[in-house]
Specification:
Elements lengths: L1 H28 L4 E6 L3 E6 L4 H7 L18 E6 L14 H5 L2 E3 L9 E4 L8 E12 L4 E10 L10 E6 L9 E6 L9 E7 L5 H9 L5 E8 L11 E5 L4 H13 L6 E7 L8 H10 L3 E7 L11 E2 L2 H8 L7 E6 L1 H13 L7 E5 L2
Parallel strand pairs: 1-5, 12-13, 12-16, 13-14, 14-15, 16-17
Antiparallel strand pairs: 1-2, 3-4, 3-5, 6-7, 6-11, 7-10, 8-9, 8-11
Helix pairs in contact: 7-8
The structure holds flavin-adenine dinucleotide and FE2/S2 (inorganic) cluster.
């Protein structure tokens, strides 16, 4: 038995050594001059090798979803690489299911362009464009959330679906030597194609949020690309349970605008979780939507109200409030936005209330 374990151990060491050798050899020997990337068996690009597939495609105006700027920490930049990607890296495996790994799905930010590649991407990504926009308004919604209004300049219009997000470019400044991109859900009505609103929560020392909160000014020009994402209204008449606090309100607000404009008769309950009164915002527009939409209720809940808040509304964590209000969720659909922790807790409550996973839609702001 011990001999067998030693043999397995030795094999593992040899295997790891070979993989390392292969990677070093690949870096040193393989020609990273010109490479050809064939996309969906049709379009072919001739590019300079040596950079990540994500960065290379971006230079060709092909934008792959990415929320972490290529650091391998969001898992959004998935593309199918049929040929030429090299071995799967340990930085990719946590983001890929066994089925995706078998189907040659890879993270575009981790795959280096070193030889000719055959890749497959969804057709919608060909619609993604880069935009130049001007900041026309910056408003403090709370002590840590800003509403950023952008007017599109070139191209002057964007078509997106309620619930989708864009990627905002942060130019080099004190916290970054190179441009970085972060994902932000669009909060405004998709019918308004010339301007978009974002709701951006400050993350201490965060590259993009520090830029937006401390450096960006009205009149500045920014670059963004999009739209991305599949989160949004479904083609159904089922009751909607929306759960989103803080800046997670952004895509829900866009969805509610869409519903109000199309006079959607769907029953909709929006649970907005916050700590204290100072974390609540846009209460008036939400109350206004209760009057416009035939069957909509906005339910703010405070988990830690200050005594000075004199709060008489719902109290407790948003999951507790949902559990109190919803008896049977088996026929409803849920739309969740916010931190991964909050979303996972909500999914558990909804499952307990009978909602199948196939009816739970979410965007994790990771
Ligand atoms: C699809 C999608 C849509 C999103 N929409 C929105 C939106 O509408 N509004 C919005 O404000 N954000 C949104 N986000 C989050 C946003 O993309 C950034 O991750 C966030 O703003 C932080 O960026 P940063 O550059 O300031 O921080 P970074 O420089 O990326 O991070 C700095 C540090 O803070 C940590 N960190 C990163 N994000 C958070 C966080 N949210 N809370 C606590 N710690 C964090 C990191 O681990 C790191 O240690 C969305 C994310 C996704 C994936
Ligand atoms: S861009 Fe975030 S994992 Fe690749």
């Amino acid at each position: 038995m011990i001999a067998l374990l030693i043999a397995v151990g030795v094999l593992c060491v040899i295997n790891t050594g070979l993989v390392i050798l292969l990677l070093v050899a690949e870096t040193l020997i393989v020609d990273t001059g010109e490479c050809r990337i064939t996309i969906n068996g049709e379009k072919a690009l001739t590019v300079a090798g040596g950079r990540s597939l994500l960065a290379t495609l971006k230079d060709e105006s092909l934008f792959i979803p990415s929320a972490c700027g290529g650091r391998g920490s969001c898992g959004l930049c998935k593309v199918t690489v049929l040929e030429g990607a090299g071995p799967l890296l340990p930085t990719e495996t946590p983001w890929l299911t066994p089925e995706e790994q078998k189907a040659n799905v890879r993270l575009a930010c981790q795959v280096k362009v070193r030889r000719d590649l055959q890749i497959r991407i969804p057709d919608e990504l060909f619609q993604v464009k880069q935009y130049r926009a001007r900041v026309t308004d910056l408003a403090d919604l709370t002590h840590d959330i800003k509403q950023v209004t952008l007017e599109l300049e070139e191209p002057p219009e964007i078509r997106f679906k309620a619930g989708q997000y864009i990627q905002l470019e942060v130019p080099p400044y004190a916290l970054t030597d190179e441009p970085v991109y972060r994902a932000y859900s669009v909060a405004s009505d998709p019918a308004d194609t010339r301007r978009i609103e974002l709701e951006i929560r400050y993350v201490p020392n965060g590259i993009c949020t520090t830029y937006v909160h401390k450096h960006l000014k009205v009149g500045d020009t920014v670059t963004l690309n999009g739209p991305y994402g599949e989160f949004g209204l479904t083609d159904s008449s089922a009751e909607m349970l929306c759960i989103a606090g803080g800046s997670g309100m952004a895509p829900i607000k866009s969805i509610l605008h869409e519903m109000a404009r199309t006079r959607s008769p769907r029953r909709c309950r929006y649970f907005f979780g916050a700590r204290a009164r100072r974390d609540l915002f846009l209460l008036e527009p939400m109350r206004g939507l209760e009057k416009t939409l035939p069957d909509f209720r906005f339910i703010p809940a405070l988990s830690n109200p200050d005594p000075a808040d004199a709060w008489e509304g719902e109290s407790g964590r948003v999951t507790e409030v949902v559990a109190r209000h919803v008896q049977d969720a088996s026929q409803a659909e849920a739309f969740l936005c916010g931190s991964p922790l909050m979303i996972d807790a909500c999914i558990q409550v909804l499952r307990d209330k009978g909602m199948p996973d196939s009816k739970i839609f979410y965007d994790k702001f990771s």
